[in-house]
Amino acid sequence: MNAKEMEVTLIKKEVVTVLLPKNEDHWLPLSNLDFCILHPLDFSIFFCYKKPTCKDNWTFVAMIEVLKKALKEALVPFYALASEKVPNSMGEHKFHCNNRGVDFTDAFANIELQKLNLYEPDETIGCKLVPKKKNGMLAVQATGFKCGGLVVACTFDHQMVDAYLAGMFLVSCAEIAQSKPFSSLPTFNREMLNPRHPVSFDPSLHNLYVPITMFNPSNDPEPSANHFENRICLVKADIINQLQSQASTKESKRTKLESFNALLWKISAKSAKNKRVSKLGIVVDGKTMLSFGDKEKTSLMSSYFGNVLSIPYDTKKIDELIEKPLSWVANEVHGFLEGAKTKEHFLDLIDWVEAHRPVQSLAKVYSSGNKEGPALVVSSGQHFPISKVDFGWGKSAFGSFYFPWGGNVGYVMPIPSPSGNGDWVVYMHMLKRELESIECAMIENHCLDLIDGQRPIVWCLVLSKIYVIDNKEGPALVVSSGLSFPLSKVNFVMGKVGNGWRQVISRHWWECVLENFDLLDVAF
């Protein structure tokens, strides 16, 4: 459905406060690693739930009441999410845990959930379903649909919460809603991330982080060529496995994420016209590294409520990335990641930030932008507990992040599909030309020259534009509505499927009817 046809009516706005205030009027400082996150910077997560099929009478009003009650009770141990951020005399922020509360909005959409345009989320998810967080640390919006479905969207302040912690909180809400005990409780002890005295760090940190005073976002003279857009896609499990196989060698097996990052880096490089280099950064969670070998600290760090992230990156020549095999690129990804997956790296980063306070620190890959060539940061939500965010009416049919973080650097966030079958849901905030390069790689089978395999790497973009039918015995059949490609040039891509040929042209994936073939299971 066209985004303009979708209307969302706001029914009620209220502030949900802590049921039993804990540590009221308590001040919580940011850690040095929190100071590595830009302010202000918010990210959102949304979950799509089909109409409940269980025997309970789950009306829209009933689901809203369950959500608010669960939120109110979960805020007791997660009290910092009901706080607000206040700067001190030096300009550094602290969290004032004063039970300010969480903004909660309930709304209603005039369409059925299956007609929600997920492929182009800016005009639907971003504008109408994701709440704008004006105050506080968290905002929630629950939107009902004509079919009885529901979308629950949350916007978090990234200076307090990362994806791991957002998942912990949402699972706790779901556990309360189903009268289950908490599986994990947060720890707010900032002393675990105190700097050493005297501070000491490897000089290589200067290559990864810079004081924010050195960040000077430029005005792009060609904004149309430097336009970022957002997409959401689904990558099938067997495709991920095949990609990992192609990125590995007899001497070294690469992880799924390393292999996926290598492919993204190659495609991004191919989209760069008249550029010299391309940068890739990968978000690394340091909780495991900082507690390595200490069982007690492992338990504390696993529930630590704050950012423990680093973004190592590397720069490669465009020609190298295009011409070298996927396995070579995956090895380069593995190489720069290994340096950040140590306890010393995070201890050094904590000290590096301390040495530059009160000036805030910033990952260099973000601050450098894309003047020299494309720059991309990939996060890892592989362990995001999407299947556990069940408030009593069933698991979500679909869910994704939504994080247009600004600046001149792309961002990609893969998380598991709620189906639990190994598929990935991938959110992409990238340059328009990079997204077009990905789509062209599918349509023209350009992925075949990125890997040494019999079949192309196939992506399925969710709703409208590109639809993929995966054929394990041969080339995949790709069906395009041609929304952004000239129909005279690209209408559909043919492939021999089974014992015959099929020609399909479709405006929407749910209108496709194919004998003996199944559409990729996207969401509903």
TrEMBL record:
One of its GO terms (molecular function) is acyltransferase activity, transferring groups other than amino-acyl groups. Gene3D superfamilies: Chloramphenicol acetyltransferase-like domain (3.30.559.10). InterPro entries: CAT-like_dom_sf, Plant_Fungal_Acyltransferase. It holds the Pfam family Transferase. It comes from the Eukaryota. PANTHER family: HXXXD-TYPE ACYL-TRANSFERASE FAMILY PROTEIN, TRICHOTHECENE 3-O-ACETYLTRANSFERASE. Belongs to the plant acyltransferase family. This is Uncharacterized protein.
